[in-house]
Amino acid sequence: MRPFLSVLIVTYNAQPFIRECLQSVFQAGEKLRSEMALEWEAIVVDNASEDDTVACLRQFEGVKLIANGTNAGFAAGVNLGARQAVGEWLLLLNPDCVVDEKAFVTFAQFAQSDEANSVGIVGWQLLNPDGTLQPSGRRFPKAWEFALALLGFHRWMEGRWFSGRHFTQRQEVEEVSGAALAIRRRVFEQVGGMDEGFFLFFEELDLCQRVKAAGWRIVYLPEAKVRHYWGASVKGVPERARRAQRESALRYFRKHHGFGAFLLIWMAFGLQHLLRQLITVWKGRQQCY
Q1: Which residues contact 239 (CB under 8 A, 6 or more apart)?
Q2: Exposure check for the chain: N or C terminus, fewer CB within 10 A?
Q3: Which SS3 state, helix, strand or coil, does residue 39 take?
Q4: Which residues in 247-284 are b (16+ Cβ under 10 Å) and which e?
Q5: CB-hemisphere CA count at 13 Å for 193?
Q6: Extended beta strands in the chain, E state
Q7: Angle between helices 259-288 and 238-257 (to 10 degrees)
Q8: How far apart are CA 70 and CA 74, in angstroms?
Q9: Whole-model pTM above 0.85?
Q10: Stretches in the chain below the pLDDT threshold 50
Q11: CA-to-CA distance for 170 and 33, rounded, in angstroms?
Q12: CB 108 within 8 A of CB 31
């Protein structure tokens, strides 16, 4: 029987949290099988972890493990896993997520309804470890908005980006977080999968842009819940993550908004770096007095 859902997880030094993630996936999967008679599969692509992630993964029977010799990035990892997947829907799930045991069933009930016929992507509700709401997606950012966010006006921009978003209500949106993003398999193939030019960050934003351009709807589904340890996946490599964010932002705005937007973002990153240096110098002088 062909699986209804293929869970794709890309790992890199995820040993501290991958066990809890997979245990929750298996619990939700058993609910899906017992309550709706639907099959599922779990595929994990490890991007050359340097800790015990792979050893931990091998303890889980039923997981299809793909161990990369090099770290090609998140988007490339997703594409590799998708080529091995056979489910009708692909769930892109961060390894620092814990799935609610009813989430697969809730999602399947929506995905099989008439309401979902024109839906290409479904974003799941993200919760902080303490159970409070965590933002999942926003409207597509304009170049000038992202530039101002880089220069210290992030809270103001969040007010604009999240305007009209209700994180406890089902609604059609422009984009959703890639931490727990379900995409119809044929839609993923239709748009050519993930753009592997994005090593980390902005890849889901780019994916949502292309899915909407292809005429599919994107829906936020708060009934499907996931606890997300926001940022846990990149805490161990902050400098690399910062560099990846810069490169991905520049690629995204050049690709979707043109050279003028690219130039604006490039200058904003330069000014941000200069401001950080000035603040560091100022703090150093304050300590001398």
Answers
A1: none
A2: C
A3: coil
A4: bbbbbbbbbbbeeebbebbbebbeebeeeeeeeeeeee
A5: 14
A6: 5-11, 40-47, 63-68, 89-93, 97-99, 119-127, 133-134, 171-172, 180-184, 217-228
A7: 150
A8: 12
A9: yes
A10: none
A11: 25
A12: no
